Amino acid sequence: AQKLILDLDTGVDDALAISYALGSPEVELIGITGTYGNVLLDQGVRNALAITDLLGHPEVKVYKGIPHSSTTDSFEVLDISALIHGKNGIGDVEIPDSNREPETESAVDFIIDAVKTYGKDLTYVPTGPMTNIAAALKKAPEIKDEIGKIVLMGGALTVCGNVNGWEEANISQDPEAADYLFRSGAPATMVGLDVTLQTLLTYKETQIWRDLNTKAGKFLADMTDYYIKAYETTSPHLGGCGLHDPLAVGVAVDPTLITALPINMKVDVEGPTRGRTIGDNTRMNDPVKTMKAAIDVDVPRFLNEFMTRITALAKN
Ligand code: BDR
Ligand code: CA
């Protein structure tokens, strides 16, 4: 099986990304690295430990990442994040804390070591700010050529942002880190709002999990219902909640779910469009394109994969 690392600011859709990965026999989740964003770093790590326990996978190791962006020395959760994901990040649903601790090795060192061990068999999926991977690439630049692939949730190319007209939340938290990754030459696929706002979940699907009558099914239904409700307030035109982070995992497992545009990208770090993800004019005529941007998705096929995999996992 392909080895997978998830880098999460464990909120609701990050938790669904964990579930998708654990429900996918094609991949082995070898570790979760924690970042900040939807919640503080420590809360996200706590959530990742508790969720892997609850889903029957206490073997998944969790590593602590950097607690703030690459250009600041502190971080505060935005009100909008707490509104969408709940104060605890998982829809304010209470689940037992794990009695496991995060690993002592740092997330950055774990990422580098995993690339050295698994090389092209390793897929890294960041679904929060890109701070940890940027730090890993700065510390060990050669990993850009050694890693299998990076499939990131973040950004927007053909649609507006969700923070403002151009900024997506994950990129917005650390534009410098994302820009470092985008221009590093690492093979990265951007799964942005272009596609993740097409893949929507409703109460009809969460009811299927609730009807399983299992702890995992009830947890997933309660947590996701909170998130759907928040989307009803913030984005009523959508008619569901965006499956951002699980779609990135879906694409990591099966790249044929999306149509991708080969393109060399950058992130604006200065000026009024700070945080925008866009083609890099200085590399547009370079015949080698190191990035791909997802511009379309097979929605019915993804939703079917999403429900089949997570429902099977939550049955037990
Ligand atoms: C992204 O921002 C976070 O709130 C979600 O978990 C997702 O990773 C969507 O813009
Ligand atoms: Ca996330």
UniProtKB/TrEMBL annotation:
An annotated Gene Ontology molecular function: purine nucleosidase activity
Coiled-coil region: none
Keywords: Glycosidase, Hydrolase
GO CC term (a single one): cytosol
Hydrolase in keyword set: yes
Keyword Cell membrane attributed: no
Domain Inosine/uridine-preferring nucleoside hydrolase: 4-303
Gene Ontology process terms (BP): purine nucleoside catabolic process
CDD domains per the UniProt record, alphabetical: nuc_hydro_CaPnhB
Pfam families: IU_nuc_hydro (PF01156)
Alphabetized InterPro entries for the sequence: Inosine/uridine_hydrolase_dom (IPR001910), IUNH (IPR023186), Ribo_hydro-like (IPR036452)
PANTHER family per record: INOSINE-URIDINE PREFERRING NUCLEOSIDE HYDROLASE (PTHR12304), URIDINE NUCLEOSIDASE (PTHR12304:SF4)
Name of the protein in question: Nucleoside hydrolase
Organism this protein belongs to: Bifidobacterium scaligerum
High-level lineage: Bacteria, Bacillati, Actinomycetota, Actinomycetes, Bifidobacteriales
